[in-house]
Amino acid sequence: QVQLVESGGGLVQAGGSLRLSCAASGRSFSSNAMAWFRQGPGKEREFVGYIDWSGGSAMYADSVKGRFTISRDNAKNTVYLQMNRLIPEDTAIYYCASAPLGGRRVRDYDYWGQGTQVTVSS
Questions:
Q1: How far apart are CA 99 and CA 86, in angstroms?
Q2: Spatial separation of the C-alpha atoms in residues 9 and 89, rounded to whole Å
Q3: What is the chain's Cα-based Rg?
């Protein structure tokens, strides 16, 4: 069984920054894509971004492009989400996910973490 564990969430003032981490255990994800999704209150889970662990490329939702950056540390099987210039609309539970091919849809991913809360003050 694969386990994904997010950390790094918290309360931050608008304009501030947070870095989320997602550590994978249970099997190797060296060739898997890793993604971040988020779900605000009363909303469906939405795509934030993903990184291809085989090629190192990344893509982002338009709402976070230029503010968020995904990176990885293959030796630690860990993916990061650096969030800068946060706005209240970023408030959500943030989830990491893993799949061999990746994508931007919830159904593209096989494994999910428990989520970490990010709250941006308004």
A1: 27
A2: 15
A3: 13
